[in-house]
């Protein structure tokens, strides 16, 4: 049931992203706020099986940040679907660990390639803000197709 729901949500989001014309790619609604973890847009925390999601573009020399606050210690699950077959990195860190040092301990991370959506997760600390970072590997970008990031938390 869980996998069917995840696949349904993923296919709906992918269908929506395909309906966005290429000319809209420069109008990423979260830019430039998602270029810094301090101003990262919030992904709403909805209980599993519902969840929050974002669609975004990786622009040239772009790093996208999103914020998510855990409500409980229940598992947080992510689905990331890349916009193409290039390589992308998704990292999740505690916001309090960022501190501007450049040395960021990662809670969970994934290297995504071949255009395949990946599901991953971890058990967070309750009532803790996490930062999700999405970056194109070695500077790759895509201005014509969106990526999809879905987040849900078990209660």
Alpha carbon gap, first and last residue = 17 Å
Give me the CATH superfamily.
Mitogen Ypm
Order of helix and strand elements from N to C terminus: HEEEEHEEEE
Percent of sequence in beta strands: 35-45%
By CATH, the topology is Jelly Rolls
| Main sheet specs | 4 strands, antiparallel
- Looking across the biggest beta sheet, what order are the strands in? 1-8-3-6
Number of helices: 2
Account of the 3D structure:
The chain is built from two helices and eight strands. With 155 residues, it is mainly β. It has a single domain (2-153), classed as Jelly Rolls (Sandwich), CATH 2.60.120.510. The strands form two sheets. A four-stranded antiparallel beta sheet has the order 1-8-3-6, with helices on one face.
Topology of this structure?
Layout: H1 2-18, E1 52-58, E2 63-69, E3 76-81, E4 88-94, H2 95-98, E5 108-112, E6 118-122, E7 129-136, E8 142-153
Antiparallel strand pairs: 1-8, 2-7, 3-6, 3-8, 4-5, 4-7
Labels describing this entry:
155 residues, mainly beta, Jelly Rolls, four-stranded antiparallel β-sheet, 2 helices, disordered N terminus
């Amino acid at each position: 049931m869980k996998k069917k729901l995840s696949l349904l949500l993923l296919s709906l989001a992918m269908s929506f992203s395909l309906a966005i014309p290429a000319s809209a790619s420069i109008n990423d609604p979260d830019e430039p706020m998602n270029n810094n973890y301090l101003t990262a847009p919030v992904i709403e925390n909805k209980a599993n099986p519902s969840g929050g999601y974002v669609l975004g573009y990786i622009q040239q020399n772009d790093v996208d940040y999103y914020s998510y606050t855990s409500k409980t210690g229940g598992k947080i699950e992510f689905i990331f679907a890349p916009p193409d077959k290039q390589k992308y990195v998704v990292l999740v860190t505690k916001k309090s660990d960022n501190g501007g040092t450049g040395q960021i301990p990662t809670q969970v991370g994934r290297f995504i390639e071949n255009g395949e959506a990946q599901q991953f997760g971890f058990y967070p600390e309750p009532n803790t803000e996490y930062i999700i970072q999405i970056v194109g590997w070695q500077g790759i970008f895509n201005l014509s197709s969106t990526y999809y990031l879905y987040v849900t938390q078990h209660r």
